[in-house]
Specification:
The complex is a heterodimer of chains A (173) and B (327). Chain A is an alpha+beta fold. Chain A has helices spanning 28-35, 91-99, 108-121, 127-133, 145-158; strands at 6-13, 16-23, 54-57, 60-63, 76-78. The termini of chain A are far apart. The model of chain A has no long low-confidence stretch (mean pLDDT 94). In chain B, a hairpin with a 5-residue loop joins β4 and β5 (68-71). The longest helix of chain B has 18 residues, at 309-326. Classes of the chains: A alpha+beta (173), B alpha+beta (327).
């Protein structure tokens, strides 16, 4: 039983144990951003619709705005801050930057976390699989095309290939 | 969200006892509940977290008779991807699970959470309005207000719509459920989970306080059965259906031998349509026949001021479902 009020718990975030005192009815999103200062994860619709708050729990992308922080105790939490390896960006981050797949950038952390789990499950995802896999992450700037291309490029680079991105346009290929 | 005491039960009877207390609220993934708690439509003093029983209640098992037993906390993603649901007979359930919300929601949302989610009626889900079903007002505000997503049949004093897309699929497959109340278990038809008369003052399900659904049973289907689920919606992703249809059919020798047909998203409860399904029996599949069935399914429709479209669209969805099974 957890009483109302503050709880002290240890979270495993990006491979590090972090002790944190937080109010027990807070969502994981609120604790990450406001108690742990991990502000890479974004606060969007609060309804589960936009995917801006996506983090990985045990490798599975989930919506941190609809998950109580107490439910994440003892689980492996991974946020966008854990994607880069020191100064070396993750291939997805590189590909997003190379192809201009981020404009305002607000949806980007969520998209990166969803896409990372997608590639981990399917190292060679088809365009359709990428579209389906990212269907829970809204982007209001890019029109998605550059995002799909960036995920394809990152997946290819992670397979050791060095391809030229596909040039599909909104008018058809 | 208002503060609450968080209960982490160690066993089902313990969860059932905790959930029976006044002001207690059961939570699975909490996709719907956390949303309502943030809106302060729901302000429980105790939240009983069923996720602490996930090891016990998350599974898909094939039964000896080739039916399925599905734990209450099985996620929609597990349902969509499980090989046991790959058979054509279970197509309706697999398709309904795979179309729900978004992949991010499906990674956590559970089968029973989907069945027991509260209606999306915007009057009920807004703290700013007092409606009859929310027990805060004298009348159904949608009846004469903004009602384009509301019921076209089966309503009395409240025109809310049942939001679950798994419900029509499971009903078309004759599913049953097991529930735990105190230390007693009982197994009933899934249709008994929903009220016979969808009155505003009644809950959206028939469970007693503290009663916990622990498993869903999909019985062995008739030989050569095929099933499908189709829905209409406004957005490709993260949307609830505007109309839905699930059906299960056995075709032998070019003729339809048995059929079930269930409509969703058009009434306060999922709507089995046995009379319309009967029209299929003994006939050869054809678009003309399916049109007749679709018309019969919507014969009792009395649309509201803004949702006449549901009748037309709903009939097309019935036809599409039947074609999907028999093509």
């Amino acid at each position: 039983m957890i009483d109302p009020g503050k709880v002290l718990a240890t979270f495993c975030i990006n491979g590090e144990e972090q002790a944190c005192a937080f109010v027990s009815h807070r969502t994981l999103l609120e604790v990450l951003r406001e108690d742990l200062q991990l502000t890479g994860t974004k606060h969007g619709c609060e309804l589960g619709e936009c995917g801006a708050c996506t983090v990985q729990i045990n490798g599975v992308p989930v919506l941190s705005c609809l998950m109580l922080a107490v439910d994440a105790i003892g689980q492996q939490i991974r946020t966008v801050e854990g994607l880069a390896d020191g100064p070396a960006l993750h291939p997805l981050q590189d590909a997003f930057a190379d192809l201009g797949a981020a404009q305002c950038g607000y949806c980007t952390p969520g998209l990166l976390m969803t896409a990372e789990a997608l590639i981990a499950r399917d190292p060679c995802p088809s365009r359709e699989a990428i579209k389906q896999g990212l269907a829970g992450n809204l982007c209001r700037c890019t029109g998605y095309l550059k995002i799909f291309e960036a995920v394809e490029l990152a997946a290819a680079r992670m397979r050791g290939e060095n391809p030229v991105p596909k040039r599909e346009t909104i008018y058809g290929s | 969200m208002k503060p609450f005491t968080y209960i982490l039960p160690r066993s089902l009877p313990e969860a059932a006892t905790a959930a029976a207390r006044k002001g207690a609220q059961l939570k699975a993934a909490g996709i719907d509940l956390i949303d309502r708690m943030k809106e302060r439509i729901e302000t429980p003093s105790e939240v009983v977290n069923l996720l602490s029983l996930k090891g016990e209640l998350s599974y898909i098992k094939s039964e000896r008779d080739s039916g399925l037993r599905i734990g209450a906390l099985t996620t929609l993603n597990d349902l969509e991807l499980d090989a046991a649901l790959g058979a054509a007979q279970f197509g309706a359930l697999r398709e309904a699970a795979g179309r729900t919300a978004t992949p991010l929601v499906r990674n956590r949302a559970t089968i029973v959470g989907n069945l027991l989610q509260v209606t999306r009626c915007w009057y009920l889900r807004s703290a700013a309005f007092g409606c009859l079903h929310g027990k805060k007002g004298p009348a159904c505000l949608a009846m004469t207000g903004e009602n384009r997503y509301h019921s076209v049949m089966g309503y009395f004093d409240c025109v809310r719509v049942h939001p679950s897309n798994l419900a029509p699929a499971l009903l078309a497959l004759d599913a049953e459920f097991t529930s735990q109340l105190g230390d007693r278990q009982s197994r009933r038809k899934l249709s008994e989970l929903f009220p016979k008369e969808a009155r505003a003052m009644l809950a959206e399900h028939t469970l007693l306080p503290g009663e916990i659904v622990t498993a869903i049973h999909v019985p062995a289907q008739p030989a050569n059965a095929r099933s499908a689920y189709r829905e209409s919606r406004e957005k490709l992703s993260f949307d609830w259906a505007t109309t839905a249809c699930a059906a299960r059919i056995v075709v032998e020798g070019g003729k339809i031998r048995t059929a079930t047909l269930v409509l969703g998203a058009v009434a306060p409860v999922p709507m089995p349509m046995p009379e319309a399904a009967k029209l299929l029996i003994g006939e050869a599949p054809s678009d003309e026949l399916f049109q007749k069935v679709a018309n019969a399914a919507y014969q009792s429709a009395v649309p509201l001021s803004q949702n006449v479209y549901k009748v037309q669209v709903g009939k097309a969805v019935v036809r599409e479902t039947l074609h999907a099974i028999t093509r």
